[in-house]
Amino acid sequence: MARIILHKELFDYDEELRRQYPVICGVDEAGRGPLAGDVYAAAVILKDGVLINYLNDSKKISEKHRELLYDEIIEKAEAYCVATASVEEIDRLNILQATMTAMKRAVAGLGLKPDLALIDGNKLPELECESRFVIHGDAVSASIAAASVLAKVSRDRYMRGLDEKYPQYCFSQHKGYGTKLHYERIAEFGISDVHRRTFLKNII
């Protein structure tokens, strides 16, 4: 029998808000900190009454369970969208503005205008609907937690794809973060066109 680990308080949080805002969208990002690769954002509108086992802050879920949750979230969502901002946009705009851009694209791509967008963190993108930020929102709201999983899984898959194109950097191991291995590979092979140059000013 499958083990039940249901963080019902996350769903209760959204359910309470739906009394005033029937359509709630959760928004989260993945990949603000790495030295390489696009930044990802996801927006998710969960169907009313939906419960998803194991759903929690994506950082607290194993990679195996995140992959399983990814499919379940897509199946049970009323609407969802995953969007990105490119390395070029990160270097041109700065990482905060690029992240806000990716979030804005994710919400716009839902095909359904939410009554309220819940944004993980303490900054708000410019949206065409009412929005509020929720600090540590992926551990507070089921909708944000679902968005965190979609964003994290999508970016991890993207980084594994970059690993095939640039095997010398071992992207599948560190996902672009500034690990000792990553810095060693940059020192040996230089900076690639998927590295964020504004994050590597000291090296350049």
UniProtKB/TrEMBL annotation:
<dbReference type="InterPro" id="IPR001352">
    <property type="entry name" value="RNase_HII/HIII"/>
</dbReference>
<dbReference type="InterPro" id="IPR012337">
    <property type="entry name" value="RNaseH-like_sf"/>
</dbReference>
<keyword id="KW-0378">Hydrolase</keyword>
<dbReference type="InterPro" id="IPR024567">
    <property type="entry name" value="RNase_HII/HIII_dom"/>
</dbReference>
<protein>
    <recommendedName>
        <fullName>Ribonuclease HII</fullName>
        <ecNumber>3.1.26.4</ecNumber>
    </recommendedName>
</protein>
<dbReference type="Pfam" id="PF01351">
    <property type="entry name" value="RNase_HII"/>
</dbReference>
<feature type="binding site">
    <location>
        <position position="28"/>
    </location>
    <ligand>
        <name>a divalent metal cation</name>
    </ligand>
</feature>
<dbReference type="GO" id="GO:0006298">
    <property type="term" value="P:mismatch repair"/>
</dbReference>
<feature type="binding site">
    <location>
        <position position="29"/>
    </location>
    <ligand>
        <name>a divalent metal cation</name>
    </ligand>
</feature>
<dbReference type="InterPro" id="IPR036397">
    <property type="entry name" value="RNaseH_sf"/>
</dbReference>
<comment type="similarity">
    <text>Belongs to the RNase HII family.</text>
</comment>
<keyword id="KW-0255">Endonuclease</keyword>
<dbReference type="GO" id="GO:0032299">
    <property type="term" value="C:ribonuclease H2 complex"/>
</dbReference>
<keyword id="KW-0963">Cytoplasm</keyword>
<comment type="function">
    <text>Endonuclease that specifically degrades the RNA of RNA-DNA hybrids.</text>
</comment>
<dbReference type="GO" id="GO:0030145">
    <property type="term" value="F:manganese ion binding"/>
</dbReference>
<feature type="binding site">
    <location>
        <position position="120"/>
    </location>
    <ligand>
        <name>a divalent metal cation</name>
    </ligand>
</feature>
<dbReference type="GO" id="GO:0003723">
    <property type="term" value="F:RNA binding"/>
</dbReference>
<keyword id="KW-0479">Metal-binding</keyword>
<keyword id="KW-0540">Nuclease</keyword>
<dbReference type="GO" id="GO:0005737">
    <property type="term" value="C:cytoplasm"/>
</dbReference>
<dbReference type="GO" id="GO:0004523">
    <property type="term" value="F:RNA-DNA hybrid ribonuclease activity"/>
</dbReference>
<feature type="domain" description="RNase H type-2">
    <location>
        <begin position="22"/>
        <end position="204"/>
    </location>
</feature>
<keyword id="KW-0464">Manganese</keyword>
<dbReference type="GO" id="GO:0043137">
    <property type="term" value="P:DNA replication, removal of RNA primer"/>
</dbReference>
<dbReference type="InterPro" id="IPR022898">
    <property type="entry name" value="RNase_HII"/>
</dbReference>
